[in-house]
Amino acid sequence: MKNKREKESKEVRRIKQSYSNKKVGISLTALAAAVAMFVILVQMEKNVLAEYEKGEVYIAAHRIPKGQMITAENYMDYFIIKEMDKKLISDTALTTLQQVQDMAAIYDVEQGTHLTEGMFEELRNIWSGMEEPVIAGFRAEDIYQVAGGTLRAGDRIHIYIVKDETARLAWENIYVQQVFDASGGSISNTDQTMAAQRINIYLDKSDIAAFYSEMADGSLRVVKLCK
């Protein structure tokens, strides 16, 4: 009888242990399922939020003239921030000033244009091939000598020297750094009416002596590149 009771007691304990193990297993399975569902829901939330994630880019506040230099002092005159879907923002879109600081507009940029790095060029590109770039200035006696006074910063020009009724190309593809009126007042790129008669250009230091000697020997003519 005693053995029988002990045997029944062992069986009861085994059944209880089995039940307890199953209960723990079910709990662990439920917990794992809950964790998995939580992870899935979090990922779904991230995906949904990513669809509507916003980013900030710069657009042109108004027309940016070709050759206009962008600096820490003037960029707010030309740039405004716009918020848009992040997935629509290109890798080259302007999102910080540092991307184009001290760079110049390659061409006229119309108001409202989404700005990208490719719309601006660095001075080192302008100075390409120069060992020691410097700024040289010259004055035209008459605006017909300098493309009718239409020159503005950022223009590219060819300079001809006229001597003994013969014109000779002396320098080509020269970058105009800044222009001035007859009295020496600086002309902004946004001013399309004032005639430029004093011109600053980038030249290599090794060309300066020849440049001023050529001008002393003859008169100059400037041809503006159209592009």
Which key terms come to mind for this protein?
single chain; 227 residues; alpha+beta; three-stranded antiparallel beta sheet; 4 helices; 29% strand
Query: What share of residues is helical?
Result: 25-40%
Question: Average pLDDT, to the nearest integer?
Answer: 81
Total beta-strand segments: 10
Shape: elongated
Strand proportion, as a percent range, falls in 25-35%
Structural class: alpha+beta
Instruction: Give a quick account of the main beta sheet: strands, pairing sense, barrel closure.
Output: 5 strands, antiparallel
> SSE string, helix = H, strand = E?
HEEHEEEHEEEEHE
Describe the structure.
30% of the residues lie in helices and 29% in strands. It has four helices and ten strands, in the order αββαβββαββββαβ. The strands form three sheets. Strands 6-9-8-7-10 form a five-stranded antiparallel sheet, covered by helices on one side. Strands 2-4-5 form a three-stranded antiparallel sheet. The protein has a two-stranded antiparallel ribbon with strand order 1-3. It is elongated. The model has no long low-confidence stretch (mean pLDDT 81).
Which SSEs are present, and which pair or pack?
Elements (H helix, E strand, L loop, with lengths): L1 H50 L2 E7 L8 E2 L4 H4 E7 L17 E3 L14 E3 H4 L6 E7 L16 E8 L2 E15 L17 E7 L3 H10 L1 E6 L3
Antiparallel strand pairs: 1-3, 2-4, 4-5, 6-9, 7-8, 7-10, 8-9
